[in-house]
Amino acid sequence: MPDARHVITERLDLSAMSLDDTEELFPIFCDERTWWYDPPGRHIDIEQTRRYATVAAERWSAGLSYWTVRLRATGAVIGSGGVQRHEACSWNLNYRLAPDAQGHGYATELVRAALDAARAADPNSAVIAWIDAHNVPSRRVAERAGLIDHGVRPTPNDGRLRVAYADRALERENDPTRREAQA
């Protein structure tokens, strides 16, 4: 398996998130426009972003985690994303870009790289993007990347109802929401 800590795509430089990325990520994570669909999720101080980056960096020891996303052409940080293991053993797909970086296809490029990394690391586990139902732009990204809409379900990590977009059918053996319901 290739080293997923650093991945180069056509226009993006994806590197394992580290604590050193906090200063560049905070303006994205605190921007109200980034969190229009979930205002309470917005980071209100840099310590929230520091904790987020710390957890993401630590999770690389488990194989995969979130990248800091930079434009190859300029080196500018435009967001974060990638995959991490969910409590239910599926891959959680996450992507967040600065408002000025949205609408250029970067999120789809990032998602495709994350799907490739997850499939290389563990092709037997579903990759799921849990998206707020009213977050239509994020849903479009998931659809462009080929993910399947499985409807509104409880998210395994926090129980909130979101739309589950997955890279495969979520049958009994690989549906994290069904495992939790059976427990």
UniProtKB/TrEMBL annotation:
- The chain's coiled-coil residues are none
Enumerate the Gene3D superfamilies for this protein: 3.40.630.30
Q: Which PROSITE patterns match?
A: GNAT
Mind telling me which Pfam families this protein's record contains?
A: Acetyltransf_3
Q: Which domain of life is it from?
A: Bacteria
Ranges where the N-acetyltransferase domain occurs:
12-177
The record's listing under PANTHER family reads: GNAT FAMILY, PUTATIVE (AFU_ORTHOLOGUE AFUA_3G00765)-RELATED-RELATED, N-ACETYLTRANSFERASE DOMAIN-CONTAINING PROTEIN
What protein name is recorded for this chain? GNAT family N-acetyltransferase
Naturally occurring in which organism (per UniProt)? Nocardioides eburneus
